[in-house]
Each structure stands twice: as C-alpha cells, then as structure tokens.
Design brief:
Bound molecules: S-adenosylmethionine
Strand content: 15-25%
Number of domains: 2
Largest sheet: 7 strands, mixed
Helix content: 25-40%
Distance between the termini: 53 Å
CATH superfamily of the largest domain: Vaccinia Virus protein VP39
Length: 291
C-alpha cells in the first residue's frame, strides 16, 4: 500500500491544475523511471510543493524546475537556494524557449559558442488543463530531449502509448509515436493527490527518437497530414483525404501506397501512413480543396 503524506500547504489554485502528489511510492517510482541522472540535466515541469523536486535535486546533475505560480516559485527558490545544481525558473512552460534553456539557439553565432548541444530529461506531474499543449511543445523539442516521464490523465497516457488498430489509437498516438517510443508505467487514483482530481491519472515514459528521416517525410507537412487523416474518426481514410485533395489524387495515392480506401486511419501503422503521404502531391502542388 502506497504511503501517503498529508499535503503541507492547504492553499492551492485549481485553475493552475494544482493537485499535489502525496503518494510517496509514486514519487519514488516517477523519479526512478528516469534512470541514472547523476550526469544529466533534468527539466521539471510544475514542481509545485516539491514532491518530486526534492528527490530530483538529490539525484540530478543539474535540475531546472519551471513553475508558473509566483508564490510557489519563491518558496522553491528559498528552499533550494543552498543547492548549486538546482535552478528555479518562474515561468509559463508554454512560453519558455526550450532551445535557450537546453543549449544552443540557432543563429549566426551558433558555431562560435563553446558549449555543444546537450540533451535533457524532462519530468513532471503535468497541470492537466494544458497537457496537450505541453506534450506538443515537448514533441517539437524532441531533438533536445532524451527521455520524458510524465504524469497525465489516464486516458492521455493510454492514447500516447496505444498501438495502431487498438481502441485508444488516434491523432495523439500517431503524433507522439513520430517523436519517440512511449510506454505506460502505472496508474494512480485520485486519492494519491491533494486535493484529489476528478479523473484517474497515469505515468508514461517516452524515449525520444524522431522518425521523420527514417520514414522520409518532412515534420511540419507530415504532422499536418496526420490531422487530416484523423479529422473525422469514424470516416474512412479515403473520405478524410477528400476533404483536402481532389478525388482522383486520393484514389491514385491510396493505390500507390497499397492501402484499401475503406480503411480507417486508426488501423494504419506509421510506415504505411508515410508511404501514403509520400504518394500524395505536396500541399502547395496539390489542387487543394477548401474545407
Ligand atoms: N509536481 C508537483 C506535485 O507532483 O505535487 C505539482 C504538480 S501539479 C499537478 C501542477 C503544477 O504545475 C502546479 O504546481 C502548477 O502551479 C504548475 N503549473 C501550472 N501551469 C503551469 C505552467 N503553464 N507552467 C509551469 N507550471 C505550471
């Protein structure tokens, strides 16, 4: 049975998704899921009252914790002031430029900078009101991230880790899996948090390894294409594609990619999706229909 510690604060801001983890077993398991981080830079999203931060600070080579709540950020800064490996950033994670935080920024001076690009681990019990935005931001920063361990709403973890053809597979699964391999680690009930959220939670781990080069597709175009493919979940790929391409173009591409027109997007593995995308004209060349 997981040991639960009472939440010390009492003040919380529901608008900021402040459901603090009080299950010590879960804290340990989340930090353990990062592996050996003694020589690693770890970015923590939403440290809150330091449930994970205390463990991370002891283990990480360098810890950058990003907290939006001014009061919490100030108290974290005081708490960790004696530790030289910990930085508290009072900021909105969605506004933070991860390239600046994690290494070189592109620009004319990039080759003159002494430090090389390094990759970080990212961890967080995410604020659920902006989970998708945070995940999308982290995916596009994938070249600078090695490993992501995140607590999210259970359904989100199920979707991120779902295999093609399974009930939970959809746009989020396909998008996430273009950026890395995800596995769901464990679930937690509302009682593991204070105050308890209204939903179940789960932790997933993702090793970042973008697949765009391997599948010979460009990132922006292919991510936009996935949105078209999953535009209406109940429709066939043929019908979804017809929202964006002329009928004859769709038929020819499906044939070239050897995909049956009546297939639904959730049944198509990413390799086949990429084959289909490559068989279609690039958006600027296609006679696009207005939706
Ligand atoms: N890590 C702590 C824990 O496990 O108990 C707190 C997790 S709580 C679910 C989410 C945290 O994210 C809160 O501390 C909240 O203030 C913070 N937060 C909310 N929105 C944020 C944002 N846009 N950027 C950074 N932190 C944010």
């Amino acid at each position: 049975m997981a040991k639960v510690t009472p939440h010390a604060g009492g003040n919380h801001k529901p608008k900021l998704g402040q459901n603090f983890l009080v299950d010590q077993d879960a804290m340990q398991r989340i930090v353990d899921a990062l592996g050996d981080i003694s020589a690693t830079t770890v970015v923590e999203i939403g440290p809150g009252e330091a449930a994970l931060t205390e463990l991370l600070a002891r283990r990480a080579g360098r810890l950058i914790a990003v907290e939006l709540d001014r009061v919490l950020a100030a108290s974290l800064r005081m708490k960790f002031a004696p530790l030289t490996n910990v930085e508290i950033l009072e900021a909105d994670i969605l506004a933070v430029d991860l390239r600046t935080v994690l290494g070189q920024t592109p620009g004319p001076l990039r080759d003159l900078r002494p430090t090389g690009l390094f990759k970080a681990h990212v961890v967080g019990n995410l604020p659920y009101y902006i989970t998708s935005d945070i995940l999308l931001k982290l995916f596009t920063a994938a070249p600078r991230i090695n490993l992501l361990v995140a607590m999210v709403q259970k359904e989100v973890a199920d979707r991120v880790a779902a295999a093609p053809g399974s009930r939970d597979y959809g746009l989020l699964s396909a998008t996430a899996q273009m950026y890395g391999r995800a596995e769901k680690l464990f679930e937690l009930g509302p009682e593991s948090f204070d105050p308890p959220p209204t939903v179940k939670s789960a932790v997933f781990r993702m090793s970042m390894a973008p697949r765009f080069d391997e599948l010979q597709v460009d990132e922006a175009g292919f991510i936009a294409f996935l949105k078209i493919m999953f535009a209406q979940k109940r429709k066939t790929v043929s019908n979804n594609l017809k929202l964006a391409y002329p009928k004859n173009v769709v038929a020819a591409a499906l044939q070239a990619a050897e995909i049956v027109p009546a297939t639904r997007a959730e049944a198509i593995p990413l390799e086949e999706m990429a084959r289909l995308y490559r068989a279609l004209p690039r958006p600027e060349a296609a006679e696009r229909k207005l939706p």
